[in-house]
Prior knowledge:
This protein is α/β, with parallel strands linked by helices. It is 38% helix and 17% strand. The strands form 2 sheets. Strands 6-7-8-9-11-10 form a 6-stranded mixed sheet. A 5-stranded parallel sheet has the order 2-1-3-4-5.
Amino acid sequence: MGRPYSKILKLIKQYDVITIYGHVNPDCDSFGSELALRELIKLNFPKKKVFALGYGIEHLYKRLTTYDEVDDETIKQSLAIICDCSEISRVPDQRITTAKQIVKIDHHIESLPFIGEKWVDTGSIACCQMIAQMAFEKKWKMNTLIAELLYLGICTDSGRFRYSPTNDKTHEIVAKLFRLGINPKTIFDILYLSDEAYVKYQALLVSKFKRTEHNVIYCFADVPDYKQFGLEFDQISKNVNVIGNIKGCPIWCLFTRKEDGTIRVEFRSNGPDVQKVAAKYGGGGHRCAAGARLENQKDFKLAMQIVNDLDEVAKEASK
C-alpha cells in the first residue's frame, strides 16, 4: 500500500514548474510549510523551477528566507500546491486558479470538499510535521534552513508542544530536526519580541474580556482599541491566547474588527469542539483551535451570535 502522499509526490516529479501557496493571514505553520517544501523540492530536484507565493511573518525573512514573485505565465504552467490551507478561496494569490493542476497538503478538518489530489492528516499537529514526515520517509536531502522552517511550524502550531494532537511522532520528528543543527532560540528571540505599544494593547484585551453563563471567555476588539496604540490590524489580529487558559473556562474566543468591517474570529478550547461553530460561520480548523472571518460587519451583533453558540457548546460539554 502506498504512502498517503504518493500521488502528490508523483505529480511533483512530473512537473517542471511548481508554485506553492499558504493561507490568508499566515501563521508560522503556513509560512514554514510553504517555504520548507520549496527548499526541499529545489534541493532534491534541482532542475525544477519552484516558487513560494504569499506574504507575512516579515520579521523572519532575514533570519530564514522569504517568498517569491512570479508572472502569470509561470503560474499557468505550474503544479500548484496548497499548504496548511483547507480551501482554495483562502489562498491570498487567486492566480492559483489558473494553474494546470492544484493539490493540497493540510492537517485541518475540511469544511468543504476539495476537488483534486490531496493529503489531509488531521492527526498531525502541523502541516510542517506532515512535510517533515514525507521528507524523512523518502530520505530526501535536508539542510539546516529546511529543518528550522519545519521546526518553526511544528513548535508554534502545537503551542510549544502543549496542544493535541502533539504525540510521539511529533517529538521523533523534532529530534531529527535538532540533529540537522537547528537553533530555535535565535528564531524565537525575533518571533516573540514585543514593543511597549503591543504589550499595552494585550493588557487592554485582558481588561475587556467577558464571561458567558457557561464560562466561555470572549472579547471584542474594535479599531479604536488598537489604533490608540499606533498599531495596525495585521499586527494584532492573533492574540486569542492572551485571554486563554483561565481556570474553569473551557472555551475562549477573540473577535478583532478591521477598518473595512472584516472581523477575524479566533476560537480556542481545552476540550469542547469549537470547529463546528467556526464551520457554521464559514471558517474551519481543528476541534480545539479554529478560525473564521466575518465580512462587512458594522458592529459585533453577529459576533454575539457566535458567542451564544459557543455557550451552548460549553453547556453541552459540562453535562
